[in-house]
Amino acid sequence: MKAGLYDRLRPGTRRDVLWTVATRGLTKEFWSVVDADSKQDISSRALADTALLRTIGLPPQWQDKGTESAHKLRELHCQALVTSKTT
Q1: What's residue 87's pLDDT?
Q2: Pick from 10, 26, 59, 79: CA 20 to 30 A from residue 71's CA?
Q3: Over 90: is that where the pLDDT of 2 sits?
Q4: What does pTM read for this prediction?
Q5: What is the average pLDDT across 26-46?
Q6: Residue 32 exposure: Cα atoms within 13 Å on the Cβ side
Q7: What is the pLDDT of residue 51?
Q8: CA–CA separation, 57 vs 22, rounded Å?
Q9: Mean per-residue pLDDT, 29-43
Q10: What is the average pLDDT across 40-48?
Q11: How many angstroms separate the CA atoms of 83 and 14, rounded?
Q12: Axis-axis angle for helices 67-86, 11-23 (nearest 10)
Protein backbone atom coordinates (compact mmCIF):
# COMPACT_ATOMS: atom_id res chain seq x y z
CA MET A 1 0.00 0.00 0.00
CA LYS A 2 1.54 3.29 -1.13
CA ALA A 3 0.00 5.18 1.74
CA GLY A 4 1.99 3.12 4.24
CA LEU A 5 5.13 4.68 2.78
CA TYR A 6 3.65 8.17 3.05
CA ASP A 7 6.81 10.01 4.11
CA ARG A 8 8.77 8.48 1.23
CA LEU A 9 6.27 9.41 -1.47
CA ARG A 10 7.10 12.14 -3.95
CA PRO A 11 5.06 15.31 -3.42
CA GLY A 12 2.92 14.64 -6.51
CA THR A 13 2.09 11.10 -5.47
CA ARG A 14 1.44 12.21 -1.90
CA ARG A 15 -0.90 14.95 -3.12
CA ASP A 16 -2.75 12.57 -5.41
CA VAL A 17 -3.32 10.06 -2.60
CA LEU A 18 -4.49 12.80 -0.22
CA TRP A 19 -6.76 14.41 -2.81
CA THR A 20 -8.31 11.15 -4.00
CA VAL A 21 -9.08 10.01 -0.47
CA ALA A 22 -10.41 13.43 0.58
CA THR A 23 -12.65 13.95 -2.44
CA ARG A 24 -14.23 10.55 -1.85
CA GLY A 25 -15.01 11.46 1.76
CA LEU A 26 -12.90 8.65 3.21
CA THR A 27 -10.16 10.61 4.93
CA LYS A 28 -10.47 9.43 8.55
CA GLU A 29 -11.42 5.86 7.69
CA PHE A 30 -8.68 5.41 5.11
CA TRP A 31 -5.89 6.78 7.28
CA SER A 32 -7.05 4.68 10.26
CA VAL A 33 -6.61 1.58 8.10
CA VAL A 34 -3.18 2.82 6.97
CA ASP A 35 -2.13 3.31 10.61
CA ALA A 36 -3.26 -0.20 11.50
CA ASP A 37 -1.67 -1.77 8.43
CA SER A 38 1.68 0.00 8.80
CA LYS A 39 1.75 -0.01 12.62
CA GLN A 40 2.74 3.66 12.45
CA ASP A 41 1.00 6.96 13.13
CA ILE A 42 0.78 8.16 9.55
CA SER A 43 -2.72 9.58 9.89
CA SER A 44 -1.72 12.61 11.96
CA ARG A 45 0.63 13.84 9.23
CA ALA A 46 -1.79 12.92 6.44
CA LEU A 47 -4.70 14.68 8.13
CA ALA A 48 -2.59 17.80 8.67
CA ASP A 49 -1.49 17.73 5.03
CA THR A 50 -5.08 17.26 3.87
CA ALA A 51 -6.11 20.29 5.95
CA LEU A 52 -3.27 22.25 4.36
CA LEU A 53 -4.42 21.35 0.84
CA ARG A 54 -7.94 22.52 1.64
CA THR A 55 -6.62 26.01 2.45
CA ILE A 56 -5.09 26.45 -1.00
CA GLY A 57 -7.13 28.07 -3.72
CA LEU A 58 -6.39 29.19 -7.23
CA PRO A 59 -5.50 32.81 -7.87
CA PRO A 60 -8.19 34.54 -9.98
CA GLN A 61 -6.07 34.46 -13.14
CA TRP A 62 -6.00 30.63 -13.01
CA GLN A 63 -9.69 30.07 -12.35
CA ASP A 64 -12.18 28.81 -14.95
CA LYS A 65 -9.54 27.39 -17.31
CA GLY A 66 -10.59 23.74 -17.17
CA THR A 67 -7.71 21.28 -17.08
CA GLU A 68 -5.18 24.12 -16.88
CA SER A 69 -6.79 25.16 -13.60
CA ALA A 70 -6.60 21.59 -12.31
CA HIS A 71 -2.92 21.30 -13.23
CA LYS A 72 -2.14 24.63 -11.56
CA LEU A 73 -3.99 23.65 -8.38
CA ARG A 74 -2.07 20.36 -8.26
CA GLU A 75 1.19 22.29 -8.70
CA LEU A 76 0.28 24.65 -5.84
CA HIS A 77 -0.63 21.68 -3.65
CA CYS A 78 2.69 19.96 -4.37
CA GLN A 79 4.63 23.13 -3.57
CA ALA A 80 2.79 23.45 -0.26
CA LEU A 81 3.55 19.84 0.67
CA VAL A 82 7.25 20.32 -0.08
CA THR A 83 7.33 23.49 2.00
CA SER A 84 5.46 21.95 4.93
CA LYS A 85 7.78 18.93 4.98
CA THR A 86 10.87 21.11 5.32
CA THR A 87 9.50 23.39 8.04
Answers
A1: 54
A2: 26
A3: no
A4: 0.89
A5: 96
A6: 4
A7: 97
A8: 16
A9: 96
A10: 96
A11: 13
A12: 110
What are the structural domain ranges in the chain? 2-86
Give the span between the Cα atoms of 34 and 2, in whole angstroms. 9
Residue type at 12 in one-letter notation: G
Handedness of CA 20, 22, 26, 30 (dihedral sign): positive
Span 6-11, average pLDDT: 94
Mean pLDDT of 60-75: 97
Helix (H) or strand (E) run with residue 68 in it: helix 67-86
Phi-psi category of 63—alpha, beta or left, where left has phi over 0 and alpha has psi -120 to 50? Answer: beta
Tell me if 14 sits within 8 A of 34, measured CB to CB: no
Q: How far is CA 51 from the centre of its chain?
A: 9
Report which of 55, 58, 78 is spatially closest to residue 66, judged by C-alpha positions. 58
Q: Which of 22, 27, 2, 8 is nearest to 85 (CA)?
A: 8
